[in-house]
Amino acid sequence: MTGAIFILSGAGLSAESGLRTFRAADGLWEDHRVEDVATPEAFQRDPKLVQRFYNERRRQAAEAQPNAAHKALAKLQKNHNAPVYLVTQNVDDLLERSGAEQVIHMHGAVKDALCAACAHRWTAPREMQVADPCPSCGQPKTRPDIVWFGEIPYHMDVIQDAIEDSDLFVSIGTSGTVYPAAGFGQMARHLGIKTLELNLEASNAPFDVQREGKASDIVPAWVDEILRG
Ligand code: BV8
Question: How many domains does the chain have?
Answer without folding.
Answer: 2
